[in-house]
């Protein structure tokens, strides 16, 4: 009797999960795996473990989060060693042309690593993707920055004002700023437009510059994640941020800028007047009225092209 029921149950399971052997994990098994405080993501052979209990929300305007001990001391030292003899004066993007120019607003020196340049970098990039829920391919390669005494980066936005810099990957949606060293005094990351700037308790060890906004003191291994776009994909002016002048010691940091689309592949076809769709589903979405319902993605906004300009008939080829 009992075995008959068991058999019937087995058939039922098979009926509900016809190809459980290939893809779908039975739901109860999936839930089992999700329990516990550590989320593991398998990416190309290396596993990226994220511990959500080490993350705190600093602010909602802008959306900013701090992950204590995101990098190990060894990872920090490794990144600094990779950069040490390759640093060059940092540049900024010109507002109109988008070209890299030298500017007194940014006096640090820096260099870009290659994406997944070595195993340590690949592991960190996988961890960033796991934490932010944003795909690794949407990220630029990591930039290492070095600030000596008096060096700073005046408050600025990480989203671009020019169209040229948005052609690959669209706007920068988020930034992960990793602190590779402690700084004795100064060098804080400051958000002058943050909602919480007045209510944040300011301890005496902060520099005067840091008192002008919501500020984060660099601590070796910590990572700061903040978003430059609102949830509706428009630019968030409260994401204005700067690096205060270093007063004592030196500052090392590593930055990962993450775009709304892939930064690896040239997926944007609407380069300079070209009238194309970026997605094969554009004609279908356009017929379904998405050009009107979701104009920022489909058509674009003031400062960036949408992905279905051809199907939405806002350009002519
Ligand atoms: C670039 O444009 C932004 C916003 O329009 C402005 O706040 C900033 O001062 C400009 N920077 C330069 C160097 O012109
Ligand atoms: C987008 O969201 C922001 C923040 O919630 C809001 O201030 C802004 O008006 C919104 N813009 C549009 C076009 O919906």
How many β-strand stretches?
20
Structural class, judged by helices and strands? alpha+beta
- Quickly count the helices: 7
Strand content: 25-35%
Low-confidence stretches: 10-36, 266-270
Question: Please, what is the oligomeric state?
Answer: single chain
| Domain tally | 2
* Strand arrangement in the largest pleated sheet: 3-4-15-11-18-9-8-5
Overall spatial form: globular
Cofactor: L-ascorbate
Keywords: Dioxygenase, Endoplasmic reticulum, Glycoprotein, Iron, Membrane, Metal-binding, Oxidoreductase, Signal, Signal-anchor, Transmembrane, Transmembrane helix
EC number: 1.14.11.2
Protein name: procollagen-proline 4-dioxygenase
Structural commentary:
- The protein is of the alpha+beta class.
- It folds into two domains: 214 residues, Jelly Rolls (Sandwich), CATH 2.60.120; 49 residues, no CATH class.
- Helices cover 20% and strands 25% of the residues.
- The strands form six sheets. An eight-stranded antiparallel sheet has the order 3-4-15-11-18-9-8-5, covered by helices on one side.
- A hairpin with a 2-residue loop joins β1 and β2.
- The longest helix has 15 residues.
- About 10% of the residues have low confidence.
- The site of one 2-acetamido-2-deoxy-beta-D-glucopyranose has 3 residues, from loops.
- It is a single-pass type II membrane protein.
Give the structure's gist in a few sentences:
Keywords: Dioxygenase, Endoplasmic reticulum, Glycoprotein, Iron, Membrane, Metal-binding, Oxidoreductase, Signal, Signal-anchor, Transmembrane, Transmembrane helix. This protein is 20% helix and 25% strand.
